[in-house]
């Protein structure tokens, strides 16, 4: 699963780079993550950034949009929407309490500025957007208008222990209506759960892959079959993050 996540990071970087000519006014490349509540969107972002930046796990459900981008400063901080006020963030736990105490609306945006020196991906001006579960609000059109029109890549974080739900499909159908052939990837997270039944692993993987390809290629028509094969991944974000933290001695 570590290899799958590395392949996904490499592939999204290539897709973002191909959009440079279309985004002359901005050097940043924005990757937006969506999925149902507790599918592991925050964990995936943490694994990609090689650190526990966003609160995740039991008791930490993302309640608003949360954007992580790099800062040349040594101290991390956060800002809400367009407010100039900086709020210090020294630990993930402090960030979790800050987000919880504010009782923000689901469409609100909190920007987390993390030192670039701590993360190679942020040094490349990649911006990662975490989102609330798409099953918690019916106001998906507002979400799309407010946070999706400038994204380069969209990632559906699905739960490998289940299957794609209609709620997830509906959101991306809405998205494809307002964006011309959006770049969409599907991450089947929690793939480590399949290890408990190794005799069914390949069969389950094949079923997920087929359904994902049907969604991307037949329903949304945003990719050919050959392109779709390079846009579906099976990952275990928590497992990868744990390995990253061990490597860093944390």
How would you explain this protein's 3D organization?
With 250 residues, this protein is an alpha/beta fold. The chain contains nine helices and nine strands.
Judging from the principal axes of the Cα atoms, what is the shape?
globular
Q: What does the average pLDDT come to?
A: 83
Number of strands: 9
> What pattern of helices and strands is seen along the backbone?
HEHEEEHEHEHEHEHHEH
- Mind telling me the C-alpha Rg? 17 Å
Question: Ranges with pLDDT <50 over ≥5 residues?
Answer: none
**Total helical segments:** 9
- What is the beta-strand fraction? 15-25%
Helix content: 25-40%
Task: Output the strand order for the largest sheet.
Answer: 4-3-5-2-6-1-7-8-9
**Cα distance spanning the termini:** 21 Å
The class by helix and strand makeup works out as: alpha/beta
Q: What composes the largest sheet? A: 9 strands, mixed
Brief summary of the model shown:
By secondary structure, the chain is an alpha/beta fold. 38% of the residues lie in helices and 19% in strands.
Task: Give descriptors for this structure.
250 residues, alpha/beta, nine-stranded mixed beta sheet, 9 helices, 38% helix
Blueprint (SSEs and pairs):
Elements: H1 2-18, E1 29-34, H2 41-49, E2 65-71, E3 77-80, E4 87-88, H3 92-102, E5 109-115, H4 120-123, E6 126-130, H5 140-147, E7 153-159, H6 166-178, E8 184-189, H7 201-219, H8 225-228, E9 232-234, H9 237-247
Parallel strand pairs: 1-6, 1-7, 2-5, 7-8, 8-9
Antiparallel strand pairs: 2-6, 3-4, 3-5
């Amino acid at each position: 699963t570590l290899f799958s996540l590395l392949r996904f990071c490499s592939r999204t970087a290539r897709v973002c780079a191909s959009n440079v000519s279309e985004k002359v006014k901005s050097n940043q490349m924005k990757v937006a993550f969506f999925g149902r509540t507790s599918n592991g969107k925050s964990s995936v972002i943490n694994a990609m950034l090689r650190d526990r930046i966003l609160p995740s796990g039991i008791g930490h459900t993302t309640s608003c949009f949360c954007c992580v981008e790099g800062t040349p400063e040594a101290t991390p901080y956060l800002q809400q929407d367009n407010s100039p006020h900086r709020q210090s963030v020294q630990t993930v736990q402090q960030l979790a309490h800050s987000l919880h105490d504010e009782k923000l609306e689901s469409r609100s945006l909190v920007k987390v500025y993390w030192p670039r020196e701590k993360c190679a991906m942020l040094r490349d001006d990649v911006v990662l957007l975490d989102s609330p579960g798409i099953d918690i609000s019916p106001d998906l059109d507002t979400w799309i208008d407010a946070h999706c029109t400038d994204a380069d890549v969209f990632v559906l974080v699905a739960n490998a222990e289940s299957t794609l739900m209609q709620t997830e499909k509906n959101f991306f159908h809405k998205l494809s209506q307002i964006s011309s052939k959006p770049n969409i990837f599907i991450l089947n997270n929690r793939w480590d759960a399949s290890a408990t039944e190794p005799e069914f692993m390949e069969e389950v993987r094949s079923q997920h892959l087929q359904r994902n390809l049907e969604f991307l290629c037949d329903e949304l028509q945003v990719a050919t079959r050959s392109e779709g094969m390079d846009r579906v991944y099976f990952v275990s974000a928590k497992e990868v993050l744990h390995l990253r933290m061990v490597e860093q001695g944390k």
